[in-house]
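Record Large ribosomal subunit protein uL30, 67 aa.
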Amino acid sequence: MAELKVTQVKSTIGNKRPARESVRSLGLKRIHHSVVVTDNAVNRGYIRTATHLLSVEELSAEGSDQS
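=>
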């Protein structure tokens, strides 16, 4: 399954509660903290809610070659 590397680039101070809670639900605790999460609908929703606070990179699935 694909994975996303999510990095918090801005503070949650002064943002609305749904954005703050989404950042926390992704496992991010401070600015420049990164986590790798699975690419699913729940995590995409969290990212969409707080897109102005986050930087997202898609990680390639190098080791999951199934022929």
